[in-house]
Structure formats: structure tokens, C-alpha cells
Amino acid sequence: MIRVTVWGENVHEQTNEAVKKIYPDGIHAVIAAGLNEDPELKASTATLQEPEHGLTEAVLDATDVLTWWGHCAHGDVEDAIVDRVQKRVLEGMGLIVLHSGHYSKIFKRMMGTTCSLCWREAGEKERLWVCNPAHPITQGIDGYFELPHTEMYGEPFGIPTPDEQIFISWFQGGEVFRSGATWKRGNGNIFYFRPGHETYPIYYDDNVKLVLKNGVKWAANASRWQDDCPNVPPEKAPEPITVQGEGLHRPGEKGFS
Amino acid sequence: MIRVTVWGENVHEQTNEAVKKIYPDGIHAVIAAGLNEDPELKASTATLQEPEHGLTEAVLDATDVLTWWGHCAHGDVEDAIVDRVQKRVLEGMGLIVLHSGHYSKIFKRMMGTTCSLCWREAGEKERLWVCNPAHPITQGIDGYFELPHTEMYGEPFGIPTPDEQIFISWFQGGEVFRSGATWKRGNGNIFYFRPGHETYPIYYDDNVKLVLKNGVKWAANASRWQDDCPNVPPEKAPEPITVQGEGLHRPGEKGFS
Amino acid sequence: MIRVTVWGENVHEQTNEAVKKIYPDGIHAVIAAGLNEDPELKASTATLQEPEHGLTEAVLDATDVLTWWGHCAHGDVEDAIVDRVQKRVLEGMGLIVLHSGHYSKIFKRMMGTTCSLCWREAGEKERLWVCNPAHPITQGIDGYFELPHTEMYGEPFGIPTPDEQIFISWFQGGEVFRSGATWKRGNGNIFYFRPGHETYPIYYDDNVKLVLKNGVKWAANASRWQDDCPNVPPEKAPEPITVQGEGLHRPGEKGFS
Amino acid sequence: MIRVTVWGENVHEQTNEAVKKIYPDGIHAVIAAGLNEDPELKASTATLQEPEHGLTEAVLDATDVLTWWGHCAHGDVEDAIVDRVQKRVLEGMGLIVLHSGHYSKIFKRMMGTTCSLCWREAGEKERLWVCNPAHPITQGIDGYFELPHTEMYGEPFGIPTPDEQIFISWFQGGEVFRSGATWKRGNGNIFYFRPGHETYPIYYDDNVKLVLKNGVKWAANASRWQDDCPNVPPEKAPEPITVQGEGLHRPGEKGFS
Q1: Closest C-alpha to C124, from B240, D209, D233, D206
Q2: Could you give the C-alpha distances from D108 to A133, C170, D62, D67, in angstroms and in order?
Q3: Which of C122, C84, C132 is nearest to C105 (CA)?
Q4: DSSP code of D131?
């Protein structure tokens, strides 16, 4: 059983009638419901408004993969929580960043780059092409899938070269975008997946739901890596160390202190 | 002429007699002097103690490559200056991070990872092997070079996979370390180079000086890239956008607003 | 159950008394026996001397991961078999290349580079450091492991930048080497692992056996990707294609042929 | 002055009237003429039909960057010449592979992968988006450029993850493609650039000519790396090697032979 925490900014859903109509319980609720269709996954939600944004140490202890959706309130996410999430990802928690989450503090933190792109809201058609047909994330998608009405994101996308290119989008208005890409940072698997604007019912789409299920399974990682710059004193060195004029750096040897 | 700003933390040199003796004018002064031996380079210095840590917008406007040495005062570097330097690197300013700078805010910011390693101070011998004999950074180094007395840094080094592995070190005490590596982030060339502990006269070493000169030339980049997530309105889209039931998204067309 | 085919050149074992004494049934037999200690793995062997070098289509159909050891007879491997193995790796069969296999046709084929290195036979000590402590391949290895007597391989190693650096070796004689590294090519996971000279009993070593078991599990991949440059005729294009002066490229449309 | 050898298969131009009309002196002649507009470049041509396909050792000695266009006669290129070109690229000669050259022996050799893609000839529009606006290869291109009538190439493209993504194409028929990408192999810079079908006058296009000029300048590399697996005998080891029961492996020492 893979434990997923679906994080939602949950602001548009409270303040915008059009969004509320599509996602009455919040975008996060729909994403979590989609994941919970899969018996191997167990998804819960957390939101900006909760104490510690719902991302307490206890919640993260019980999280194998975190998904992140945010848009208009990136700046309201406390740096201490971003530090905490980054630490967990580097230790091995999976991270899936969705749509406008490209500009979240946590994605920019993990990438080190601007994560900029160009964009347009015109309800146009998007077609996501599979660049890697045998990848775990694309299983069940045959060649491409389409979203009839979406916000456009276009190149240049300010990211480090991905480890693997998973999807590239074609837009009706003439742009292209690297819509699915993966990176490993520390021991954490990171997947950016573009679809998901708040004014379109993207997270009800069967293909989007499938990619998210696949993505979570791909990102989950049982191992953990905690590194903290340890000192290795001379007496613990694998080889004896002789320093000019001082003899051996080994306990009991001449010159060792 | 490549303009280099050599940044130094300049704390050990003020507080530790042993360091002061080796670097009476500061580590930064010796690094800059080494670079200035090369007629193609013009190096100046900046330190933690100066206003804005010596890294004003005007200084960065006149900087092609920034080198960074810090150790005990990483936490004293203001986040606003780190933001500023990161922005410049992503636009195209070169960045060379030295030795204990592996744990600086700017290096961790660019990498997104822990940048952890293991270490030991025992004055042992280090031998830096060239992994890439034809790389601009290794020109003039034949196979390897040695430092008779250094601090040890050992694996695991908590970095993203480098674009290119330049040097790997062998240590007398039995460890190894990825001592020279490069990454591109945004439009910026980044080079991490390990040698340089404050209690050894490393920056007077001819091979170290040569690698730094080479590294600066490699990192310098005349182009600049400024990206800020531009909106591309429908009337600027390369292709006309038809939305179901609304007609064309083009000025003057039916349904366009 | 992961099905492994352990390929052995099987020449030294027939012609060199010292090797025969260490590996009376061949290096491949000892590698396979080590893998078969793990109940999740089922390893068989194939050798140069068999018809089609033991790598018939039927054998490869039943192979999840292929391990490759060769040294003095790389040139005797038929190109047609190399083509066949490469095709399978790109489709998704895992490949683990061992020691002197760095100069095999199949490894050079997959890498595209020289795969050159420097070397010495002096029975010296090797210490393999883990660069990636949480990686599946390094599970059960704590920091490093040692081989008391090995052939030395040193940098520069003529490979493309690895996707992940797994091990780096320290040698008693003063060299270093990227002893464990991974690449993905097509849908195939590739792991190069250095230990294994024929005149030392390396493949009886518990740590080497553990790494090989881990490596096989990491490389195994149930999915397959077969690509053959398909034509997509205009009538199968996702969007209608209008060509200047010719109308739509769609069956039944004006100008479509 | 950068010396470019423009290699052309030169078959369609001899056998197909439509192609002959567009490229009466061959595609290679037009590519070379475009490059020669730049005073920093000096381009010559070589073709399949010449002895050694025009790629003698002497020609390659005088070549900084090789461009490669082929389509219907990939199989006629002798393996010995492919070996020779690969060796030169790994030593440091730049390589630019054009359009249908994706399926050439030399590109498949350098990549190690299938280099497969999907394709369609319908004279449709292509728009090449810049993913990396500050890259040397994209200087002078503002956001994107268009080709009114081209053959379509679509994903999945069977390549190793590029070092840098330079262009991605949008096609009128609905596909996308990674149309410009770079890799470093050994000491050689490799650039794949998609445009160029024989039945369209692509190589007369100003933007295509500009990208090729930029690409050649990017790929040129003055250094050379020749590696041939050298032996480092014990007496040349940087450190003395003691082998259990045998003493030092140093000339004159006990146990040294």
C-alpha cells in the first residue's frame, strides 16, 4: 500500500465561483479520489489553511509520495515547511508537482532554476504525446491523449535537463511544452506533470487520473537516505595516515593525538 | 577580458592565527592574485563583511564569473543576496564553488540537494585524477596532480548527477571524492572544485591556480537569459484558436473578447 | 522470479591453469551460482563456444537480465549476436556488464564511446565506496567494501556521463575509478560493475555477490518497447492538414490523394 | 577559421527529378554554401560516391566539424568509414546530424539506441520552438521559427536523454518532436537538427542556415583526446603497492618482478 498525501492550495476553490462549481470539495479532494480508485494506493489530503499547512512531521512520516497543487498563494507557504518537505524528498519521499505548481517554492527549491514558462488561458485543445512508451508512468496510454480545453503552457521551460522526458504537449494555438518529466534528487523521485488548470475539470479526466496513479507508483521508494556531513576521525580512516614529520595518525602511534 | 569577482567569507583569516599566517590578506586575495596572473582575466574581491556582502547589483553587473569560498559563516549570508546571486547565475553569470563552499547557501540553492559529504582533518595527501583529459578545465594537467597535505572530503557527496565529471580524488586515508564536477542551470555554468582548506596553503599551488584559471574561462558566458513567465494572449498565439461554441479566439473574430 | 542469463567468454578458464583452479567450471558458473542463492532469481549460463554464443532468440525470450563477462575474445563475438542483444536491451532486457566487459562489443555499442581506461595487474587492494547509499544496488553495503587483491582499473574511463554514480573505487597503488554506474538506453537498464578479474576469486566474495543480486533486481524491467519508425499517413494525423493550394490532406477532401 | 566537411549521400539528387530541381548540385552543396556565407567558417563537401566516401584520414585531419545528411543509402556507408568517423568524434571532431540522418549508421553508433521516430510526408507546417534562448545554437532566433512545408517527424524519438534540449517542433498535423538536441560523447560535441527533407527547399531557409552556422561554431572543439587503454605497471603506480607475502611492488624491492 502506497500512502499518498495530496496537497492543495485550496484558495481558488473558496473564492472563485467557477472553480467551486467544478471542484466543490477542492481540487485536492478530486485528485485524492482518483488515486483512491486504485487498491494499491491510499491517498489523504492536506491544505494550505491547516496548521503547518497539514504537513506535520507525523503526516510526512506516513507519506510515501506527496503531490503538490498550488497557484495563487505560493508565497503563503512557510519556508520552514518547504525546508521540511525538501528534506523528506531528498531522503526518499516521492514528489509529484502538478500544473501551476511549477512556480511553487518546493519545485523551485528542488530544481534550483526559475521554472518559468509562457502561458495563455483560451480554453484550447492540448495533446500530450508519450516520449517513452515503456515507462511506468505511461503504461495504458497509447501514443497520446487529448484534453479538449486547457490553459496553455509553452517553452522555454526553465528547468534543469530532465533525467527522462515522459510527455511533450502540442497546443492548438501553436505552442509545445515538456509536460511530463522526471528528476532524481538525493534519494527522491520527482515527477512534474502539466495538466490541471482550476477552471477546467482536468482531474476528472481518465487519462490524467491514470497518469497520476502510474506516477505515484513510480515515485514511491521504500529506502531512505539521511546524510549530515559526518566527520571521520583519523583513527576511523580505512588506511593509516602518515603526515610528514609526525608519524602515523593512528591511536597509539607516534604523533597521533 | 573576463571579469571575476572572488568572494571570500574572510572570517578564519581574522580569527585564527594559523590561517592568518598562511593568508594574511585573506584567502580571497590569494585566489584573486592567482587569477590575475592570466592576462585574459581581471579578478576583484568581495567579502561577507562588506555592505550587501560586496555583491551589489553594480558589482554583479560587472561580473562574468563569481567564485565562492565560505566555511564557518554560511548562515550569515543574507537570503536576499543569495536570491540575487542565484538569479544572476540562471541568467548566465558563471559560478565556481570552492571547497567548504559545498555547504554554502548558494550552492545548496543551485543544486537543490543536501550537498553533504564526509570529512577529516589529518593533513593527509590527496591526488586529483583527471576524468576528462580534453576538457577545457583540465588543460595543462597531465593525468593527475597531488596536494601533499589537505583536509579529506569523502563520498557520498549529496549532489545531482553532474553534467560532466572532471576530477575524482584519491586520499591517503582511503577515501575517494568527486572533486571536480560541472552543471548547467538556466544559462549559468557551475563548477565545483574541492581543494582549498584554510589551514593549508592550497591556493598558492600551481595546479590549483591553473584549474581555477581554466575554470573561470570555461564558466564565462557572454549571453544572458531573463525569463519571467510571460502571458501570450490569444491574439498573439501563432495559430488561431477555436473554442467549442465560441468561434475563433482572434481579435475581430466571433467570440473573441 | 527474475530470469538471468549469465554470459561467459569461457576462454581463460580453458587455457590458463591459474584461472581454471579458481573457476574450474567457468567464471559464469560461479556468478550464476551466486545469483541462484537468491530465491527471487533464476540464473542460467551461456558461453561464447555455444551455437549463437548461447544467445538464441529463444534464450533471450526467456531472459529478463543478461550479465556479460568477457576479456580476451571480444573480437570473436559475432556482430549479428551483438545486434540481437542490443535490440533486446533497447526493448527492455536488463544488461549488467562486468569488469573487462568494459571493452566488449555490446558495451561499446550501448555507450557509443571508447570505454577505455588504464589498468595494472599487481594484486593490490581495492576499496569500493558507495556514492548512493539508498540506491537499490547498494542495499546491504555499509559505506564501502574491500577486495584484498584485484587488478586495478583507473580513470579516465571513456563513458558517457552516467545517469547515476553508484560506486567509486580507491586503489592501493593510488588510482581511482568509477566502478559502478548506470545508464538507461531505450527501455533497457544498464549497470556496469568493475570487480571481477579472472586470476582472483572475486565472484566468490559476499559483497560482490550481493551487489550482483541487487543489480539484477534493479535492471529487471517487465515492460517492452519495440519501435520501428512507423509512417503516419495524412488520414491518420490527429489534426487535418491543409497544404497551400491543395486543400485538406484528409481522405475524401479536395486535393487528398 | 572553423573547417567544416559537409557530407551528403547525394542519391536522391541524382535519381529524383523533383529533388534535382531543388538541389541541382546536391543538398550538400547548398548546406556548404550557406555555411560559407559566414567568414569564420570554411565548408567543403564529401559524398557517398567518392573513394572512402570522401572521408579519408587526410580529409578528417582537416575537419573541425562534420555535418551528415543521408536518407535512402545509409546501408551503403562502409562500416570501416563509420568506425573512422566515430573515432574522430570521440577524439573531439564536432558532429552535426541532419534530418533523416537520424537513421544513419554514425548517429546510431554514437547514440547506442534505435533513433526511431514516426513520420509523414504531407507538406505540412512546422514551427520550431526554442527551449534554450541563451544557447549558442539559438542566437538570432526569437522564440520560434516556421517552415511552411516539411515532412513531419514525431515522438517517440529513440534517443538517450539529451544533455540539452534546444528545439521542440510543433506540426500542423498534431505531432511534436525533439528537433534540436545535443550530446557530448568522449570529447566530441554532437548536435542533431531535424529540418531538411529532400523534396522541400529547407536548406535555403535563412533560419535553418543560421542554426547550422551557430551549430557548427558550438560543435567546434580545438582539443583532442586519444585513449587506448594504457597499462600502468607497478613501478609507475603513484603509490607503492604491497602485496601480502610478497613485499613491495617496486623495482628493486622484494617480490617485484
Answers
A1: D233
A2: 20, 35, 24, 15
A3: C84
A4: S
The pLDDT of residue B244 is: 55
* Contacts with D190 from chain C: Cβ below 8 Å: none
CA B123, distance to chain mean position in Å, is: 25
Residue C29 in contact with residue C23, Cβ under 8 Å?
yes
The alpha-carbon gap from D254 to the nearest alpha carbon of chain C, in Å, equals 14
Question: Do residue C173 and residue D231 have CB atoms under 8 angstroms apart?
Answer: no
Q: C: neighbours with 3+ CB pairs under 8 Å? A: A, B, D
**Is D53 a residue whose pLDDT tops 70?**
yes
Nearest-by-Cβ selection for A225 from C91, C134, C227: C134
CB contact under 8 A, B224 and D134: yes
The mean pLDDT of C232-242, rounded to a whole number, is 92
> Percentage of residues in chain D with pLDDT exceeding 90?
92
Cβ of B155 and C127 within 8 Å? no
* C-chain residues near B170 (CB < 8 A): 170-171, 174-176
* Chain D interface disruption, residue of B124, B132, B138, B183, most D CBs within 10 A: B132
| φ, ψ for residue D152, nearest 5 deg | -95, 135
* Interface-testing mutation among C146, C165, C177, with chain B (most B C-beta atoms within 10 A): C165
Contact D95, D110 (CB under 8 A): yes
What pLDDT sits at residue B132? 93
For B8-25, what is each residue's pLDDT tens digit? 999 999 999 999 999 999
Closest chain C residue to the Cα of D108, Cα to Cα: C112
pLDDT above 70 for C88: yes
Could you report the predicted ipTM of this complex, rounded to two decimals?
0.94
Cα angle vertex A212, ends A208, A214, to 5°? 115
Residue B68: partners with Cβ closer than 8 Å, 6 or more residues away: B7, B95, B96, B97, B98, B101, B104, B106, B107
Which residue among C131, C161, C174 sits closest to B170, beta carbon to beta carbon? Answer: C174
User: Alpha-carbon distance B188 to B181, whole Å?
Assistant: 14
**Interface contact A223-C136, CB threshold 8 A:** yes
Strand pairing class (C247-248; C242-243)? antiparallel
Kindly report the pTM of this predicted structure: 0.96
Number of Cβ pairs closer than 8 Å across C and D?
A: 151
Q: Do C229 and D172 touch (CB under 8 A)?
A: no
Look up residue D53 and give its DSSP letter. G
Residue C242 binned pLDDT confidence (cut-offs 50, 70, 90):
confident
- Give residue-wise pLDDT tens across range D130-189: 999 999 999 999 999 999 999 999 999 999 999 999 999 999 999 999 999 999 999 999
pLDDT of amino acid A255 = 37
pLDDT tens digits along A214-237: 999 999 999 999 988 999 999 999
Closest to D166 measured CA to CA, from B187, C27, C2: B187
Backbone φ and ψ of B111, nearest 5°: -85, -35
Residues in C touching D175 (Cβ below 8 Å): 232, 237-238
Tell me the C-alpha distance between C79 and C108, whole Å: 12
- Going by C-alpha positions, the residue among B182, B190, B198 that lies closest to residue B221 is B190
Residue B8 φ/ψ, nearest 5 degrees: -130, 140
pLDDT, average across residues C99-122:
98
Summary mean pLDDT of chain A = 94
Query: How many helices (DSSP H) and strands (DSSP E) are in chain D?
Result: 7, 11
DSSP state of A93: -
> Residue D128: CB partners within 8 Å, gap ≥ 6?
D144, D145, D146, D147, D167, D168, D169, D179, D180, D194, D195, D207
pLDDT band at A242 (very low <50, low <70, confident <90, very high): confident
The cell numbers describing A94, all together, are 516521492
Of D132, D144, D223, nearest to B134 by CB-CB distance is: D223
